[in-house]
C-alpha cells in the first residue's frame, strides 16, 4: 500500500479506536482557553461551534470498544445501546474533555438523555436542539432562526468572545468544503467501490467526528486521491445501499462482514449528520438566515424528519437508481424507533419498484456476525442472479 | 373510556359511571354513523389534542391511542399486534401503533364493535412523543388522506416561552386551521371556539378538584387506576361540550359525598376500605391485565393518590386552564404543557411535589416497553426521587397493550416485596 495512504488510514483507525477522546484533549492543549462541544447524532449546526473557535465533537457511542460498567444501570433492556455507552463515556470521565453537549431532536431517547445529562451533571452546559418539523420559512424557519441565534449566543458565552458574522460565514464555507469532499468520496465509491472498501471509507469519515473540519477535509481529499490510484480490480459483487444506521453506529467488523459476504456498499446513511445538506449553503449574506434556509430546503431525507409530501422512501429508491444498486439492506439498531417505524414504509416504496431488500438488526457492541454473514451472502448471491437474469 | 370492567363488578353504581358509559357509547355510535350523517372525522392524538378546535368546525375526533387501549382492555390487542408484525412491523416498536394498524388491517372495527370511519384528515399533533410522527406517516399510506402537522416544541427546561407559543399559534393559523376549513367546508369561527373553551375551563375546574380530593386521608379516589376513568372525557372528545361539563359536575358531587362519608374509592373488587399505603405512580398502566394489575395494589391496601399518567393530556392541576379570551394562545400553551412534553428534570420536580403534597408513603414506576417517551430516564428518576424525598420507590416493567410483556407472577412479586419493604419501614419508624 502507498505509504501516505497507509499513514492516513492508520491515523483514521487510531481516532476511531480512541474512546478516550485523546485527540480532542490534544487539540485543546495546543492553545490556552480552547474549548470543545460534544453533539449527538444526527444533525447540529456545527458551524456555530466552529465560528466561536471551539471544536465540535461527534459522540457516536462507544461501539464495541467500550466496556459498559455503569451505563446499563440507567436503561431498561428494551432501549437501544447508544445511550448506555454515552452515559458510560461520561460517567467514566472520558467526556470531561468537553465543555458542553448538544442533544438534537431525533428521537425520544436522545431527547430524554438530554434531561438525564442535566440531572447527572449539574453545572455542565447542556442544550436540547429542537429542529423544526415545519418547513415554512415564515413559521418553522422563524422558529429555527431563533434557535440558531440562541445557540450562537450560548456558544459566544462559552467561548468567551463574540462570534463575528464574518467568522460564521467562514465556518459555513469550511463546512461546505468538508461536505463537498464527503459527497465526492461517496460519488467515487459508488463508481468504483473496489477502490474504496468500507473499512477505509468509514474510518476516514468517522475521523470527522473529532478532527477540526479543515483537517478532516484535507484527510478526505488526500484519501480520495491516494485510494483512487489503487490497483484493486473490479470484482463481481452485488451493489447494495445500506440504511438505518444514521444514529447508533454498527461495529466496523459488521460492515466488513457485509463486504466479505459479497456486497459492495455503494451508498449508506452512516454518520449522516456529517453530510446533512444536499448542496452548498450560501456563503455570503446573513449567515443565520442561510443556515436556517438550508435546513428547511436542503436537508437529506431521514426517518426523524417529517416528510410533508408523504413521499416516504422516495429518496431510497433514488439512491438505488443513482448508485445503480441491486438491492437494499436494512440494517437498524435494535429498539431504534425512528429506523424501525420507518422501515415498513421504505419496504413498501422498494416493493413498488421491485427492488430486492433484506433486513437485520444490530447493536453497536454486536460481536457475532455469523448469521449476518450468511444472510448477507445469500442476499448478495440472489440479487446478483436477479440482476443478471 | 368505558367503565365496563369496573361497572360490572362494582358494589355501588354511581351516576358518573352511567353517564360516562353513555358518553362513550354515543361517541362510538356517532363515529359509526358519521358517513351517513355527513360528518367529517379527524384522527388525532391525546397529548396536545385540539378537541375544541375540531368541534368548532363540527368535526369529530377519532383517537387511535384510545382505540388501542380499549382494544387492550377487551383482549383484542394481541391479535392486532400479531397481524401488524406479520405485515413487517418490528417487535421492538410501540404496541399502540401496531395495535392500531392491526385493527385497521383486520377491518377497522373499533373496540365497541362499530366499524370506524376512514378519517378525512390526520391531525398530527406532534406533542411529547416522536412515535406520533411515524404513526401518522404510516396511516397516511393506508388512508391516502391529507395530514396537518403541528410541531409542538419540547420544553427541555420545563418552561413555556413566548416563542414556543408563537410558533404553535403560527402553525395553527397557517397549517391546521386552513386544513380544517378545507375538510369541514366551514370558516374558522373564533367566537364559537371561545364558547367551547369556556366550557372546557369549567369542566377542568371540577376535574382538578377531583384529582386533588386525593389529598384527603383516606383518599376518596384512586388517582391512577380510577384516574384513567376520570381523565377519559377531558383528555378526549368531550372537552368543550356541555356533556363534559355535566360529567365532571356529577363526578365532583359524588366524590364530595364520599369524602363526607369517609369512604374510599370504588374498585372492581368493591369499595376500598382499608388504605394502608398512599402511593404516587409514574408511567402509563398496563391495559391487557388492567383489572388484575389494579387488584395487586388493592390486595395490599395501596391507594394511588397522584399519578403522572393522568397528566399526559394536560397539567390542569398546576394551574393551566383553557382560556376563552386567548383561544389560540391557550390551545398552544395546552399542547406545550402536557406531561410527556416536559424535560426530565421538570418531570422529577412534579413527582417530588406529588409525593410531598399528597403525603405519599412511596412511589412506583411502571415502565412500559412501548414508550420511550415515558421510559427513557425512569431509572434515574427513581434514584433522584428517592434521594430528594427519602421515600422509597418501586420499579416494575410491563407494556401497554402487548400481553406478552405482562408477567403476572413477576409483577405481583415485585409489588408484594415493595409493600413488605414499606411495612418494615413503617415498623422501623414507629420503633425508632
Ligand atoms: S439508535 Fe435510534 S432510538 Fe436509539 S438514540 Fe439513536 S435514533 Fe434514537
Ligand atoms: S411511544 Fe408512548 S407516547 Fe408515543 S404513541 Fe407510543 S405509547 Fe404513546
Summarize the structure.
The complex is a heterodimer of chains A (389) and B (432). Chain A has 389 residues and is α/β, with parallel strands linked by helices.
Shape of chain B: globular
Q: Report the β-strand fraction of chain A as a percent range.
A: 5-15%
Beta strands of chain A, count: 8
Rg over CA atoms of chain A: 20 Å
CATH topology of the domain at 30-167 in chain A: Rossmann fold
Could you walk me through the main structural features you see in this protein, from its secondary elements to its overall organization?
The complex is a heterodimer of chains A (389) and B (432). The model of chain A has no long low-confidence stretch (mean pLDDT 96). In chain A, helix 6 packs across helix 11 (287-298). Chain A is globular and about 60 Å long. In chain A, 49% of the residues lie in helices and 10% in strands. Chain A is of the alpha/beta class. The two termini of chain A are 37 Å apart. In chain A, strands 2-1-3-4 form a 4-stranded parallel sheet. Chain B has 432 residues and is an alpha/beta fold. Chain B has a domain at 31-188: Rossmann fold (3-Layer(aba) Sandwich). Chain B is built from 17 helices and 10 strands. In chain B, the strands form 3 sheets. A 4-stranded parallel sheet of chain B has the order 2-1-3-4, sandwiched between helices. Mean pLDDT of chain B is 94; it is low at 1-12. Chains A and B meet through helix 5, helix 6 and helix 13 of A and helix 7, strand 4, helix 8, helix 14 and helix 15 of B. The structure holds iron/sulfur cluster (2 copies). One iron/sulfur cluster (SF4) binds next to helix 5 and helix 13 of chain A. The site of one iron/sulfur cluster has 13 residues of chain B, from helix 7 and helix 15.
Amino acid at each position: 500500500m502507498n505509504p501516505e495512504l497507509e499513514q492516513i488510514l492508520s491515523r483514521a483507525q487510531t481516532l476511531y479506536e480512541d474512546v478516550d477522546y485523546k485527540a480532542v484533549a490534544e487539540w485543546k492543549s495546543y492553545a490556552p482557553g480552547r474549548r470543545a462541544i460534544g453533539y449527538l447524532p444526527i444533525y447540529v449546526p456545527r458551524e456555530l461551534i466552529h465560528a466561536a473557535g471551539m471544536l465540535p465533537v461527534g459522540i457516536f457511542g462507544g461501539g464495541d470498544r467500550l466496556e459498559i460498567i455503569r451505563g446499563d444501570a440507567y436503561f431498561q433492556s428494551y432501549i437501544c445501546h447508544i445511550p448506555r455507552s454515552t452515559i458510560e463515556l461520561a460517567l467514566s470521565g472520558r467526556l470531561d474533555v468537553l465543555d458542553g453537549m448538544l442533544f438534537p431532536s431525533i428521537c425520544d431517547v436522545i431527547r430524554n438523555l438530554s434531561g438525564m445529562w442535566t440531572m447527572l451533571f449539574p453545572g455542565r452546559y447542556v442544550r436540547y436542539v429542537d429542529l423544526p418539523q415545519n418547513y415554512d420559512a415564515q413559521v418553522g424557519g422563524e422558529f429555527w432562526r431563533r434557535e440558531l441565534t440562541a445557540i450562537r449566543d450560548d456558544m459566544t458565552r462559552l467561548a468567551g468572545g463574540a462570534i463575528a458574522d464574518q467568522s460564521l460565514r467562514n465556518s459555513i464555507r469550511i463546512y461546505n468544503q468538508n461536505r463537498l469532499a464527503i459527497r465526492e468520496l461517496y460519488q467515487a465509491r459508488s463508481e468504483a467501490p473496489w477502490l474504496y472498501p468500507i473499512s477505509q471509507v468509514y474510518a476516514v469519515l468517522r475521523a470527522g467526528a473529532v478532527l477540526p473540519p479543515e483537517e478532516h477535509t484535507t484527510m478526505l481529499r488526500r484519501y480520495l486521491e491516494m485510494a483512487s490510484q489503487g490497483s484493486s480490480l473490479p470484482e463481481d459483487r452485488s451493489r447494495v445501499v445500506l440504511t438505518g444506521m444514521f444514529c447508533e453506529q454498527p461495529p466496523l467488523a459488521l460492515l466488513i462482514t457485509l463486504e466479505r459476504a459479497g456486497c459492495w456498499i455503494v451508498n449508506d446513511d452512516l454518520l449522516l449528520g456529517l453530510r446533512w445538506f444536499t448542496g452548498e449553503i450560501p456563503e455570503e449574506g446573513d449567515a443565520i438566515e442561510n443556515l436556517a434556509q438550508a435546513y428547511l430546503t436542503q436537508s437529506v431525507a431521514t426517518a426523524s424528519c417529517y416528510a410533508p409530501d408523504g413521499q416516504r422512501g422516495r429518496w431510497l429508491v433514488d439512491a438505488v437508481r443513482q448508485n445503480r444498486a441491486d438491492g437494499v439492506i436494512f440494517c437498524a439498531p435494535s429498539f431504534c424507533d425512528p429506523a424501525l417505524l420507518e422501515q415498513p414504509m421504505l419496504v413498501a416504496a422498494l416493493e413498488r419498484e421491485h427492488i430486492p431488500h433484506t433486513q437485520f438488526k444490530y447493536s453497536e457492541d454486536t460481536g457475532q456476525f455469523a448469521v449476518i454473514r450468511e444472510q448477507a451472502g445469500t442476499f448478495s448471491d440472489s440479487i446478483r442472479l436477479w440482476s443478471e437474469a | 373510556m368505558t367503565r365496563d370492567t369496573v361497572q360490572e363488578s362494582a358494589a355501588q353504581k354511581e351516576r358518573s359511571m352511567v353517564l360516562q358509559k353513555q358518553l362513550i357509547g354515543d361517541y362510538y355510535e356517532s363515529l359509526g354513523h358519521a358517513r351517513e350523517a355527513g360528518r367529517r372525522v379527524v384522527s388525532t392524538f391525546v397529548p396536545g389534542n385540539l378537541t375544541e378546535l375540531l368541534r368548532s368546525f363540527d368535526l369529530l375526533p377519532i383517537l387511535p391511542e384510545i382505540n388501542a387501549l380499549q382494544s387492550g382492555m377487551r383482549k383484542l390487542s394481541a391479535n392486532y399486534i400479531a397481524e401488524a408484525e406479520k405485515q413487517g412491523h418490528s417487535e421492538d416498536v410501540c404496541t399502540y401503533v401496531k395495535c392500531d394498524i392491526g385493527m385497521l388491517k383486520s377491518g377497522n372495527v373499533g373496540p365497541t364493535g362499530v366499524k370506524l370511519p376512514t378519517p378525512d384528515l390526520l391531525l398530527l399533533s406532534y406533542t411529547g412523543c416522536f412515535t406520533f410522527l411515524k404513526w401518522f406517516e404510516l396511516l397516511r399510506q393506508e388512508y391516502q388522506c391529507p395530514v396537518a402537522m403541528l410541531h409542538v416544541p419540547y420544553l427541555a427546561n420545563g418552561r413555556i416561552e413566548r416563542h414556543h407559543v408563537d410558533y404553535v399559534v403560527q402553525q395553527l393559523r397557517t397549517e391546521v386551521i386552513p386544513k380544517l376549513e378545507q375538510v369541514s367546508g366551514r370558516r374558522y369561527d373564533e367566537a364559537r371556539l371561545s364558547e367551547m373553551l369556556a366550557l372546557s375551563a369549567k369542566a377542568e375546574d371540577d376535574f382538578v378538584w377531583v384529582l386533588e380530593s386525593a389529598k384527603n386521608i383516606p383518599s376518596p379516589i384512586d388517582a391512577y387506576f380510577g384516574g384513567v376513568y376520570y381523565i377519559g372525557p377531558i383528555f378526549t372528545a368531550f372537552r368543550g361540550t356541555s356533556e363534559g361539563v355535566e360529567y365532571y359536575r356529577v363526578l365532583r358531587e359524588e366524590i364530595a359525598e364520599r369524602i363526607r362519608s369517609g369512604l374510599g374509592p370504588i374498585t372492581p373488587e368493591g369499595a376500598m376500605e382499608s388504605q394502608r399505603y398512599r402511593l404516587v405512580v409514574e408511567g402509563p398502566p398496563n391495559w391487557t391485565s388492567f383489572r388484575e394489575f389494579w387488584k395487586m395494589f388493592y390486595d395490599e391496601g395501596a391507594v394511588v393518590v397522584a399519578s403522572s399518567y393522568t397528566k399526559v393530556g394536560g397539567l390542569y392541576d398546576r394551574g393551566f386552564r383553557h382560556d376563552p379570551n386567548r383561544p389560540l394562545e391557550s390551545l398552544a400553551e395546552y399542547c406545550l404543557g402536557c406531561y410527556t412534553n416536559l424535560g426530565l428534570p421538570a418531570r422529577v420536580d412534579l413527582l417530588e411535589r406529588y409525593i410531598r403534597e399528597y403525603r405519599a408513603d412511596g412511589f412506583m414506576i411502571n415502565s412500559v416497553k412501548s414508550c420511550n417517551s415515558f421510559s427513557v430516564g425512569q431509572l434515574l428518576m427513581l434514584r433522584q426521587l428517592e434521594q430528594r424525598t427519602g421515600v422509597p420507590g418501586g420499579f416494575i416493567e410491563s407494556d401497554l397493550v402487548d400481553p406478552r410483556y405482562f408477567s403476572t407472577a413477576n409483577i405481583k412479586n415485585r409489588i408484594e416485596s415493595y409493600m413488605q419493604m414499606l411495612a418494615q419501614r413503617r415498623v422501623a419508624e414507629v420503633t425508632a
